[in-house]
Amino acid sequence: MNTFSYTPSEHELEKASNSYLMSLVALIAGMPLPIINLVATFFFYVGNRRGTYFVRWHCIQALLSQLSLLFMNSFGFWWTVSILFGPETISNKYLAYIISVFLFNIIELIATIYSAIQVRKGHHVSWWFYGDITQIICKPKL
User: Fold this and answer.
1) Rounded to whole angstroms, how far apart are CA atoms 8 and 79?
2) What's the DSSP call for residue 46?
């Protein structure tokens, strides 16, 4: 579903846009700790879980993207720690993973900024993969 059956109000547009901005603010505050972004986005979702369908939908999509980033970044972090303080050495697999994680983070950052801007303008943005999962999780209230 790429559109909503109603036009969201200005208040809804702002809240939905803020669901994406929350992870950016948390990124600045907790750069080395990937869980900070997820926690901030989760609490924003909890605060808006009874909101309108449009706001809830975008909060869930932002939360799902942060959840996948948490797993990817955490694995990369602990792999790096094991190289720095353990017997492991830098390998081609490690470099490929770190480059992939870096690129995924950059793409997610750009998509987050783009989504925040577009949603604030009233355009519904559904990300590949996350949008489909969000659609399954988030149902309109009847």
Assistant:
1) 44
2) H
Q: 125, 142, 141: which is closest to 1 by C-alpha?
A: 125
- 119-140: per-residue pLDDT in tens? 999 888 898 899 899 989 988 8
141 neighbors 53 (Cβ within 8 angstroms): yes
Domain boundaries, the chain: 10-137
Quick: pLDDT tens for 39-55: 888 988 999 888 889 89
Q: Where are the alpha helices (DSSP H) in 30-91?
A: 35-48, 53-85
Per-residue pLDDT for 109 more than 90?
Answer: no
- Give Rg (Cα) of the chain: 17
**Confidence bin at 80 (pLDDT 50/70/90):** very high
* CA–CA–CA angle 12, 24, 135 (5° rounding): 50
CA distance 99 to 3: 35
Report the 10 Å Cβ neighbour count for 13: 19
pTM: 0.81
